[in-house]
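Human: I'm a chemist; would you kindly supply sequence and structure tokens for a protein?

Assistant:
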Amino acid sequence: QVQLVESGGGLVQAGGSLRLSCAASVRTFNLFYVGWFRQSPGKQREFIATISWSDNRIYYADSVKGRFTISRDNGENAVSLQMSSLLLEDTAVYYCAARVSSVEERFVRDSEYHYWGQGTQVTVSS
């Protein structure tokens, strides 16, 4: 059983930055894909970014491209999401998710991920 724990959420002003981290209870993230999603009240969960641990392939949703950066923290066996130029509409609960796959694919649907963290709240104020 893989457990994911997010951290780093909080309150930030519009235009500011915040860094989220997703730590996993696994010895290695090898063969894992890790994704970040978010959900606002009344909205469906939205894909943000994904990274393949083995070869560092990255893909972003258009809504965050150029503002958010997903990366591996090799020494910590964790994945980070650096968020910059935050907008009011970035307010949401942010979740990290993971799955194992030996096939090179782009996993952007929440149904494609098997493991989820508990979520961390990000609130952007004006």
User: Anything to note?
Assistant: The mean pLDDT is 93. The chain has no helices and eleven strands. The radius of gyration is 14 Å. Residues 52 and 104 are 8 Å apart (CA to CA).
